[in-house]
Protein: Glycine transporter domain-containing protein
Organism: Cryptosporangium minutisporangium
Amino acid sequence: MLLASSDVLPPAELATPVWLDAMSAAVGGVFGALTARRADLDVMGALFIAVATGIGGGLIRDTLLQRGTPAALTNPWLVPTALGAALVGLLFARPVVRLTLLLTLLDALFLGIYSIVGTEKAFRADLPLLSCVLLGVVTGVGGGLLRDILVGDRPMLLLPGAVYASAAAGGTTLFTVALALGGSTAVWFVPALALTVLMRLGSLRFGWNTPGPAAVDARMATVTSWPARLVRRSKPATPGGPAHDEPPRPGRGTRRGPDQR
C-alpha cells in the first residue's frame, strides 16, 4: 500500500548541515574550474562555471519545486565557497589534480547525499513517485550538467561510460519506494546513500559502463540469434552417410561423365 508523504515523513525536513553544503559547493567549484581551464576560458568564465557546478543541482531543484528563492542563493556561504574553490583550482591546478582520487570519493558521496535530499523534498511536496526519482537525480547531477553545457561539451552523464546518473537513479529509486511503502527517512537514508556510492565507485573500479548504441545492437543481435541456434541444434542428424540432398560422390560403381574425368 502506497502512502502519502504526510503519513510517512516526520514534520521536519531532511536537511544537510551548512558545512556539508559548503564542502559540496567547494568540490563542485574545483571540478568546474578544472573543466574551464581545459576549455581555455578566462578567469571570469572559470568562476562562473565553478559557481554553476557547485550550486547548480540545488538551484534547479528549488526552481522546479517553486518554493521561493533557492536555498543556494539565500545561504551566505555557498557562492563564496564555490568561488574560493575555483580560485584554488585555477591557481594550483597541478597539485589539485593529484587529489583526483579524494575529489572523486567526495563527489560520489555528495552525489548520493544530495540526490536523496532532493528526492525527500519532492516526496514531501506530494509529487508522483517517478517525479521524486527524477528530481533527486537532477539534484545530484544538475551541477555537472550545467558545467558541460556551458563549456560547449556534450553532457558526460548522457554519454556511454562510467555509471553516474544511473547510480543516483538507483539510490533515489530505493529511497522513494521505501518511503512510499511506509519506511522511515532516518532508516532508509543510509542504505540508499550506500547503494549510490557503491554503484558510482564500483563502476570506476570494475569498469561498469552504460552501453552505447553499438553495444546495444550487438547484444540484441546475440539475443535474436538464439532461436536460430536452438533450431539448428534441435535438427536430427541424418544417420549413415551424407544427407539426402547431397549429390553422390564419384567412386566404384559410379559412372563418371566426361567433365568428371
